[in-house]
Structure formats: C-alpha cells, structure tokens
Amino acid sequence: xxxxxxxxxxxxxxxxxxxxxxxxxxxxxxxxxxxxxxxxxxxxxxxxxxxxxxxxxxxxxxxxxxxxxxxxxxxxxxxxxxxxxxxxxxxxxxxxxxxxxxxxxxxxxxxxxxxxxxxxxxxxxxxxxxxxxxxxxxxxxxxxxxxxxxxxxxxxxxxxxxxxxxxxxxxxxxxxxxxxxxxxxxxxxxxxxxxxxxxxxxxxxxxxxxxxxxxxxxxx
Length: 220
Known about the structure:
8 helices, three-stranded antiparallel β-sheet, mainly alpha
C-alpha cells in the first residue's frame, strides 16, 4: 500500500492517521477479485479456519470470531501477537477522530468493514483483505522505525554505508522497537547507556542483537 503510516508520538502511546488506515484498506479492497497473488494466498491460508468457524445465518463471521480468526492466523503463520485482536476487544466507531491508537487499529478497521457490509459479518474475501491491511500497516510501521533509526544517526537511506554503521543502525532500530521514542534522540553516549539498561530490562538483548546482525549478514 502507498499510504503514509508514520506513527505520531502521543504520550506513551503511538497513533496512526485514520486516513492512512482507510487508504490502506481501500487499496486491499480494490484488489479483491483481480487475482492479486497475496490476497489469493491469504484466502487459501485462511480458508480451512474460515470453514471450521461458526457463522451467522448469512454464512459470515461475526466481530468476535473475526478477531479470533485473525489472532490465530497471525500467531500461527507470522509469529505475531497483534494488539487489539483479543476476542474481548470492543467495536470502534468508524466516524472517530483523525488518528487512532495503534492498539485500536484492528477494531477501527473492523468498524470500517461493518459499515461496508452493513453489519452482516465478514466473508472469506473480506477476512483476507482485513489480514492484508494489518500486514501492510505492520510493514509500513517497521519501515518507518528503520527510517527513524537512520535519521537519528544522521545516515542516508540511499547512500552506501560501511558495515559498522549498518550494524549500529540495526541495533538502534531494535532499541526503538523495544524502548519506543526514548531511543530516537539518543546520541552515541546515551545510546551506550540505553544499551546497558536494555540488557537489564530484556536479558536476551545480547542474543537478540547478535541474531539480528547474523540475519543481516546472511542476506547481505
């Protein structure tokens, strides 16, 4: 999707522009029925679970079942725990403000779907489009975090860099992922302090950062 999904700082939380979420969803919906490979693959992955799950009188999935299906799909297929897909999550009024808390994005998307299908529930195609929208949002968010990491170190995303600079950028990206905005404006000295602190908060940090660097070198 081409929508800009840069998260905005809002206290301790992050928000996404509702317009960006809507654009991402509309992009996926426009691809339905046009043989878009990712959507077809998602439908194939989701079909066995869709068939097995209880449906309403129209043969569609209701709100709580949709959240369960997507939660299970992302855990099993991607290893992701997406905030907001808990079965107890509430509905969202799609006529809400200009931005939405990131952990409320799934409910917001579901509200948009409910408006589209007039509360009749979601079929397999809509379920796949929902999953695709969340994947797009996650991808855009992580690209934004990586760009933030480069920017915090005054590095260009276009120029070639030496291996040491790349390693530091990847470590900064991981720290932004784990610590949030605190890691953005940190200079080299503060970064070292944060790295020592993160090792206490996340004991697996040395192994995690080493794993990330190993992955980078294996695909480099």
